Amino acid sequence: MARFCVYTREQCALCEEFIAELAPVLGLPGTAFEVRDVDADPATRRRFGLKVPVLTCDGRLVCHGRLDRAALQRLL
Questions:
Q1: Alpha carbon distance 53, 34 (integer Å)
Q2: Given pLDDT bands bounded at 50, 70 and 90, which one contains residue 47?
Q3: Domain spans in the chain, listed from the N-terminal domain onward
Q4: Is the pLDDT of residue 30 over 70?
């Protein structure tokens, strides 16, 4: 099973919207995602900076800013 992770930032309305769009897709049986605070780790903050929200799959960038449904579907 692929490991999806969403990097967010506190009080980020765009991040909340991103997760709301993602939840119905990755909330299905056999899929899941983890949410991490981009500011909790200095290396992650340097890597993604202001690009949040960021979706990764097995550590590779899938999309950032807005959910790219086509890119996500290719991974499912």
A1: 13
A2: very high
A3: 4-75
A4: no
Strand ranges (DSSP E) for the chain? Answer: 4-8, 33-37, 54-57, 60-64
Distance of CA 55 to the CA centre of its chain: 3
CB 36 within 8 A of CB 44: yes
Question: Residue written as tokens 């939840």?
Answer: 23
Cis peptide before 24 (omega within 30 of 0): no
Q: What CATH number should be reported for the domain whose range is 4-75?
A: 3.40.30.10
Q: What does the pLDDT average to over 13-33?
A: 86
Q: Which two tokens stand for residue 51?
A: 């690009």
